[in-house]
Write a structure and sequence with these properties.
With about 280 residues, the protein is of the alpha/beta class. It is about 40% helix and about 15% strand. The chain has an eight-stranded mixed beta sheet, sandwiched between helices.
């Protein structure tokens, strides 16, 4: 690990389309594909639900509970690490739950967010930030500006990839000094929608290369509602494939250390799944 550990930021063109699922699954998959330690930061300041997806109704530590250290610039890497939830079945992943005081979202300053990101990239080999879909807060702007990889999640709905994608990402990025062509796209397919536009058309409209797709399923959403999404990513054969291709591309792009050849074999993964993914 170096002081310049990479930051991968996920943003949605539209709220509530599966951006957090994509970002969280990517953290699990990157940990499986590489030897890197992964820090997941829920920076969705207005609608944080990561803790509920993982079955933690009352998290002990959240982004807002670290505000005293963030305000004074005194957050230490060790304190950040201890404040993060260890992902079930993936010892290499730790998760900082998001803001629970929604009315305070706009009061986070760029200095506070940058301080958090500074400490995160000192603590982990790679950092995944989920900023949701709202641009009117410091977390979104800082995490996008600093990102080494920017992933925009959208769907095949015209209003999402065309209207929202243009209005937010394509129009606002240059205003805040973020390269409009510095994004890559993930297309999320909800289980209740068939058809729509082809992914190549979506990528062309957005002006972004596509790095993969995320197909939501009824079983996945059931796990999400039940607070067992993390276990689904680790123990379910279907869950272990979620975001596998995009994560593998990110691992290659960032040059993260790969796991040994034996660990990459399908039979070995099935063995780990049978054991509950305790290999870490």
């Amino acid at each position: 690990m170096t002081a310049s550990s990479p930051l991968v930021t996920f943003i949605g063109t539209t709220p509530n389309i599966g951006t957090t699922i994509a970002a969280l699954a990517a953290a699990y998959r990157i940990s499986e594909e590489s030897e890197a330690s992964v820090g997941f930061l829920c920076l969705n300041l207005k609608s944080s639900k990561t803790h509920r997806y993982l079955g933690i109704d009352r998290p002990e530590t959240t982004v807002d509970s670290l505000r005293p250290e963030l305000r004074t610039g005194t957050l230490l890497p060790d304190k950040l690490f201890r404040s993060m939830h260890p992902a079930a079945g993936r010892a290499g992943v730790r998760i900082l739950f998001g803001n629970t005081l929604r009315d305070q979202a706009e009061y986070f300053t760029p200095e506070e967010v940058d301080h958090l990101l500074d400490k995160a990239v000192l603590t982990f080999d790679v950092v995944i930030a989920d900023v949701g879909a709202y641009w009117d807060n410091a977390a979104t702007l800082c995490a996008l500006r600093r990102a080494d990889v920017r992933v925009a999640a959208t769907t095949a709905a015209l209003s999402h990839f065309q209207e929202d994608g243009t209005r937010w990402i394509k129009q606002l990025s240059p205003v805040y000094g973020i390269a409009e062509d510095g994004f890559e796209a993930i297309v999320v397919h909800p289980p209740w929608r068939n058809g729509g536009f082809h992914v190549k058309e979506i990528g062309k409209e957005l002006g972004m290369p596509l790095i993969g797709e995320l197909k939501l399923s009824e079983s996945m959403l059931s796990q999400l509602d039940g607070g067992t999404l993390g276990e689904y990513f680790v123990r379910s054969e279907q869950g272990r494939r979620v975001m596998a291709e995009p994560a593998e591309r990110i691992v290659r792009r960032l040059g993260l250390p790969r796991r040994s050849a034996i660990a990459a074999q399908p039979w070995y993964r099935k063995l780990l799944a049978h054991r509950g993914g305790v290999n870490g």
